[in-house]
């Protein structure tokens, strides 16, 4: 039977200093060196870093030869122009393969609406950045052109309490009824201890840890736990 590729996507949110970013990459590289059993055949690791660190992370990942893709945590709904403070999809596309769009924290603290999020998805696609679109439940509207989704129930984010793997799988199954959705991740209090229960579910393709990605050792342990066990 074909082994599905598991996506482990870390979301740093608004955390880390420049020095801490360097330490994270160096520590992660050390783990990788000590344990050569990382296999990009089965695991795809993505790291969503604050935009200001994309260039540094891009440089470090190349220098240390790390099998990690980078993602932006946010992009502008506009292509370019007089939009003070905005970072466009075109700008991040030089460093990021992915963009996180629709996270509940952006909806809650920055009043992002379905309409605005649809524009961000459009911008991402036009600039060959792949949107990882967050949904809060099965009723969240998913814009056209999205192939990768993360189901993140609001109450499970940062709470230490996860949804049940069975319910997360049920939502993923429903979402995948839409032909254009290829992969669904689960997010909300993912740890090295609970990750296996989620990735074993037939309709789930990976996880999106927030807190669990801040410490490189913990992120590494999540990857190790998600690896197919021989
Ligand atoms: P958490 O965050 O793992 O800290 O719960 C998940 C997320 O919001 O992406």
Helix/strand layout:
Elements: E1 6-11, H1 18-34, E2 43-49, H2 54-63, E3 68-72, H3 89-92, E4 98-101, H4 104-109, H5 114-126, E5 130-135, E6 148-151, H6 165-175, E7 183-186, H7 195-199, E8 206-207, H8 211-214, H9 216-226
Parallel strand pairs: 1-2, 1-8, 2-3, 3-4, 4-5, 5-6, 6-7, 7-8
Helix pairs in contact: 1-2, 1-9
The chain binds 2-phosphoglycolic acid.
The site of 2-phosphoglycolic acid has 13 residues, from helix 8.
Describe this structure in words.
With 230 residues, the protein is of the alpha/beta class. It is built from 9 helices and 8 strands. The chain has helices at 18-34, 54-63, 89-92, 104-109, 114-126, 165-175, 195-199, 211-214, 216-226, and strands at 6-11, 43-49, 68-72, 98-101, 130-135, 148-151, 183-186, 206-207. It has an 8-stranded parallel barrel with strand order 1-2-3-4-5-6-7-8, surrounded by 4 helices. β6 (148-151), α6 (165-175) and β7 (183-186) form a beta-alpha-beta unit. α1 (18-34) packs parallel to α2. It is globular and about 50 Å long. The two termini are 15 Å apart. The mean pLDDT is 95. The structure holds 2-phosphoglycolic acid (PGA). Residues 11, 152, 157-158, 187-190, 208-212 line the site of 2-phosphoglycolic acid. 2-phosphoglycolic acid is lined by residues 11, 152, 157-158, 187-190, 208-212.
């Amino acid at each position: 039977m074909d082994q599905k590729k598991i996506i482990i996507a870390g979301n740093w949110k608004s955390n880390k200093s420049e020095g801490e970013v360097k330490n994270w990459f160096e520590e992660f590289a050390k783990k990788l060196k000590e344990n050569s059993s990382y296999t990009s055949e089965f695991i795809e690791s993505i790291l969503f870093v604050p935009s200001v660190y994309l260039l540094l992370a891009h440089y470090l990942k190349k220098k240390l030869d790390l099998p990690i893709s980078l993602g932006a945590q946010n992009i502008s709904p506009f292509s370019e122009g007089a939009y003070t403070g905005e970072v466009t999809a075109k700008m991040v596309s030089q460093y990021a393969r992915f963009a996180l769009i629709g996270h509940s924290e952006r909806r809650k603290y920055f009043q992002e609406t379905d309409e605005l999020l649809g524009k961000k998805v459009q911008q991402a696609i036009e600039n060959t950045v792949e949107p990882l679109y967050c949904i809060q439940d099965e009723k969240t509207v998913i814009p056209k052109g999205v192939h990768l989704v993360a189901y993140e129930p609001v109450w499970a984010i940062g709470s230490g309490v996860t949804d049940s793997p069975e319910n997360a799988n049920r939502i993923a199954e429903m979402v995948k009824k839409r032909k254009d959705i290829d992969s669904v991740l689960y997010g909300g209090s993912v740890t090295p201890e609970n990750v296996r229960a989620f990735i074993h579910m037939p309709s789930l393709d990976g996880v999106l840890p927030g807190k669990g990605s801040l410490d490189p050792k913990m992120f590494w342990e999540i990857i190790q736990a998600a690896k197919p066990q021989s």
